[in-house]
Amino acid sequence: MALSKQPYKGARDFYPEDKRLQKYLFNTMRNVVERFGYEEYDAPILEPLELYKAKTGEEIVNEQTYTFTDRGDRQVAIRPEMTPTVSRMVAAKRQELTYPLRWYSIPNLWRYERPQRGRLREHWQLNVDIFGVAGPEAEHEVISMADSIMTTFGAKHDMYTIRLNSRKLSDYLLQEHLKFDHEQSRSLTKLIDRMHKISASDFSEQVDDLLTDTQRHAKADKALMAVLNATSIAELPPELHDHKSVEELKKLFELLKSSGVTNAVFDPSLMRGFDYYTDIVFEVFDTDPENNRSMFGGGRYDGLVGLFGVDSVPTVGFGLGDVTLQNFLGSHKLLPALRPETDLWVVLIGATYERAQGVLNEMRDAGLNVALDSTGRKTDKQLKAALKKGIKYALFIGEKELEKGEYTLKNLETVKETKQSIDEVIKLVSERA
Amino acid sequence: MALSKQPYKGARDFYPEDKRLQKYLFNTMRNVVERFGYEEYDAPILEPLELYKAKTGEEIVNEQTYTFTDRGDRQVAIRPEMTPTVSRMVAAKRQELTYPLRWYSIPNLWRYERPQRGRLREHWQLNVDIFGVAGPEAEHEVISMADSIMTTFGAKHDMYTIRLNSRKLSDYLLQEHLKFDHEQSRSLTKLIDRMHKISASDFSEQVDDLLTDTQRHAKADKALMAVLNATSIAELPPELHDHKSVEELKKLFELLKSSGVTNAVFDPSLMRGFDYYTDIVFEVFDTDPENNRSMFGGGRYDGLVGLFGVDSVPTVGFGLGDVTLQNFLGSHKLLPALRPETDLWVVLIGATYERAQGVLNEMRDAGLNVALDSTGRKTDKQLKAALKKGIKYALFIGEKELEKGEYTLKNLETVKETKQSIDEVIKLVSERA
Prior knowledge:
2 copies of one chain form a homodimer. The first copy, chain A, is an alpha+beta fold. The first copy, chain A, contains 16 helices and 17 strands. In chain A, strands 1, 5, 6, 7, 8, 9, 10, 11 and 12 form a 9-stranded mixed beta sheet that branches. Chain A is elongated and about 95 Å long. The interface between A and B is large, with 94 and 94 residues.
């Protein structure tokens, strides 16, 4: 029986045209974050399962992570996210590293989920983290960088908003301001995280289930909704305005505004799935009404490095996945048309393969990407292959051409043919544009 | 208990300095193969286990491949090699693709082995394949490209040899010339593959075990050794000189010589571990007596695409691993010193973080990679961080500097300080070299 030609379910093959797009996405990301002084790191796709048990969240570890026991009886996971790994790496060299540390990576991550639009079983995710800055400068830099990535891809500020919240403020709100106990406030946090995915009536019903009779009597649900529906810091109850976390949020909004990030908004209902966030969290939302959803986000997680038995390090970071980004750019018509890497296709006339090598080397040494048709078939078939591949130029090399040192160069887009020396060919084709 | 800071056994963390080296290796490879018209593809790291059962070889599949059963009860493998994957992808679009097809990828591959020098449990491997060329032009191109990769990294021809053999010739030798039966010739192939890893006496003992009395009487072992010890085609017994596979080898040597690959030699004892090779095979050997071993290799495998229920496609390819390459370049002192990606470190004097943003943006927009010390600590500590990170330039930004538009730029290598406008800073730092 023939073998299956399909890739593993929920995962993608990247044919050259797909890979070219991915490289465009990755290289654009790399350029932006390196402008901000970030350096690339990487790590094995396999990690001890234990690494995720502490803080990744139960659902992900127990239901969505690829885990197995290796031939040496170790419990291994295919990484579902990069944050535990980068924390591990920083912890391992806690003393030697020089702070602030600015690191990024574009790892391949896996989750066992039901494949659907925007969610496959694997994706690639830009991870950016700054270690060693306790002040709001860290959040400011990381969020500015997220914004800069979006605008570098051609996005306008009306295409997305950056929603901000503070975990410290949420905790204070739920526990001190609204007087929920620890257990209630944990459950409410998880419930609020799903608030925009369920109906308003389902949400208030589930909130009601969590309340005590006294709280019901005191209309705690109304007080909660008043806070959650605030669309700016000014709309929060006045007694909250002096809380330290609110001051910090205000400072951050001010910094962002001063560097042109004008589409950041306060969203007190913003929680983030992971358990490790400790302070400011943010998410970037697509404003397209057809696709109005969270694209990516991050926040401050000061405690993670400390789990490895070393002093903790203040950290802010985010992750941006390629599938989500590509969907966004596609629906906003921001994906560019990309040309193949190959500049020139050589059509051989007669048995000139061996004699043409010198000319081929000359062009390659000069920096041209040159493929040739070495099938020995007729010239029209050779030319047709170049056209199908979308290559811009074809060059004809036969005995006569080699003798005279003059070759026919055909621009396959304009269909113009000219006679050129190799030096001229190199000059013309190098002007890629 | 604190979590472990170690990566998974036999796998590597890439800190920024390690990743920088890896990027240098990958980008150099990419440049060379794209000059030859190759286009990058990629595929999921997980594949159905079945994909490897057909041709990868029993030892690798049963003892060395990472396999597990997923939550949907599928038997999955973490890919131990890329060749079955690329064959699957070509088969899936057999009719739509335009030949010759030149593809490359740099996948991460995993094998459960005892970690040792040059062999970890994971590595990254350049895979290059040409599909659709039946003639020796395919081998010539692929081997020339392997040579070009080596020389582009700075290797000289006396540092490595390229050994060539033909599976067709080996089969003919064993079965027709030396009259071994099918079973004997299979066992001998495997034994010859290990010939240089065991002692000469062990080898001849094991050969002897495979012979029949008649063969022993006819001194078949002597005849075998005479063939295996040939160091050139001329040294083969004369009756072999007319065999088609010898003609093909000769043609290939001629082509290689004509394009400057002068370090290719014939090695009749060269077999390759994988079962799928059908004709010419080659391996690149380090000539360093301390490290005299095979670094990488490849060959022709015309039958693999056909396993997926479509017409087969003539294919030649090779794989070059990053660990082996790095060891080679290291032992031959060919690894370059690489600078950090960050060009400039900004030292803030006083509380100028917010006001400095405009200048930072200006430098970044002009293409400089600029990091800043946003810790708020003393200037000498900020400067020390830049030195420790190996960054070439530091720029001091305080209130006074912002007012005058004149900044102190310090070259941390020459320790020279000059006063410059931002335009001048951009000009000076852009001359990276």
